[in-house]
């Protein structure tokens, strides 16, 4: 007899996990990390404490999961960034980065980390090591691959990745932490990505 969970049970488990993550994010933002208990998260999520503890034995593990999922790049079904054409590849990456930064909850997640950082520095570590860093490394690997393919000359891919992502996030994302009404239009965002790509192409393109 198979011990593997059925498709139904897997779907139910995924739904409960999603409800827990949503409830936790909302409570962390409203009451702070320290002011939110796992018992309250279970109550708001509509699950038993046993169910929550089974998936997330500690509050730290739950926060780690929130960070990891927030930075997860979904497969849009579109083409992979081209390493043969630097401008086209960076354009693809740039627009996907915008989609990531403008996801509902991304600004709220950073606000939680910033507010709680003095008492819980491990939250900043989680945000950096499990969220931002893996994404940054994927862009650095792309630039290294473009260098190997001969479409770019990038001797320091980490530095180049920092430059590219910074040009986009400094316009699209970081102002939202201080300016709640910051919401540039689609044309302004597209221009920001295009200018970042042009700058990178001028500096590193062959």
TrEMBL record:
Instruction: List the stretches of this chain annotated as a DNA-binding region.
Output: 37-56
* Alphabetized InterPro entries for the sequence: Homeodomain-like_sf, HTH-type_TetR-like_transc_reg, HTH_TetR, Tet_transcr_reg_TetR-rel_C_sf, TetR_C_Proteobacteria
UniProt domain HTH tetR-type: residue ranges: 14-74
Q: Where are the transmembrane segments?
A: none
Note the Pfam families from the entry.
TetR_C_7, TetR_N
Question: PROSITE patterns under this entry?
Answer: HTH_TETR_2
PANTHER family listed in its UniProt record:
HTH-TYPE TRANSCRIPTIONAL DUAL REGULATOR CECR, HTH-TYPE TRANSCRIPTIONAL REGULATOR RUTR
Under what name is this protein listed? AcrR family transcriptional regulator
Which species? Micromonospora ureilytica
